[in-house]
Amino acid sequence: MTGKAAKLLCSAGAVLALTSAAQADPTFPARYEVRGVAATDALNIRATPSARAEIIGEIEPFAIHIEVLDLSPDRKWGKIGVPEGNGWVSMAYLAPTPPEDPFTVPRPLSCLGTEPFWSVSLYPRGAEYNSPDTGAVPMAVTHEAVADHGYLVQLEEGPSLNRTLIITREACSDGMSDRAYGFATRMFTEAPDGNSALHGCCTLDHR
Fold first, then answer.
1. Is the dihedral of CA 32, 155, 26, 200 positive or negative?
2. Helix, strand, coil percentages, rounded to 5, for the chain
3. 59-64: which pairs have CB atoms within 8 A and are 24 or more residues apart?
4. How confident is the model over 44-68, as pLDDT tens digits?
5. How far apart are CA 87 and CA 57, in angstroms?
6. Distance CA 45, CA 53 (A)
7. Residue 204, Cβ neighbours under 10 Å: how many?
8. Residues 93-143: pLDDT tens digits?
9. What is the SS3 assignment for 178?
């Protein structure tokens, strides 16, 4: 086992030890798309899972890549993310996105952290690292693996800078807003000017 792998397993073990008693439902988060909404209408996002609740936003009638974090007790409403928090939409107008390859990490998928600000986005045809210091930097995925409750992604940013993400299916907060996320991540970076280990949250939502 390499030194990098040992450090990653140690970090991931600490996270899993804290959350093993309350492991997330493996069904969620899951990706959905809007169905049955007229082209001239929109799907309302409400503050609570009720048709009488305040409308706090809307989703376009043919939107895809909508991440549902959880369902209401009656399973009629889905919890989704909004810029500064979460809202609820009627599941009557959402259809599951067709299943993806179970042996690859789902895409698009974005992970982000604060203090410092950073993000890594995985797309069907590439990956990108972004921070205020570097701007958008393309990366190549060199290895990925799937487990029951998470993912491993190894990325290369040039010949001497490598990033490894361990993504676990569990509740996560970005520390800057009231938004709840359904994936947490640890990112280990190997760089010529020094290694670093950061944590953040991930989302399947790409509306």
1. negative
2. 10, 50, 40
3. 59/34, 59/89, 59/207, 60/34, 60/207, 61/34, 61/37, 62/33, 62/34, 62/37, 63/33, 63/34, 63/207, 64/33, 64/34, 64/97, 64/207
4. 999 999 999 999 999 999 999 999 9
5. 8
6. 9
7. 23
8. 999 998 888 899 999 999 999 989 999 999 999 999 999 999 999 999 999
9. coil
The owner of tokens 């996560």 is 172
- Return the SS3 of 191: coil
What pTM was estimated for this model as a whole? Answer: 0.85
pLDDT 10s digits, 148-158: 899 999 999 98
CB 148 within 8 A of CB 20: no
Q: State the Cα–Cα distance between residues 92 and 40, nearest whole angstrom.
A: 18
Residue among 48, 44, 71 at smallest CA distance from 60: 44
Comparing CA positions, the residue from 20, 109, 19, 29 lying closest to residue 71 is: 29
The structure tokens 């899972």 sit at 49
3-state secondary structure of 92: helix
Rounded CA separation 65/78 (Å): 14
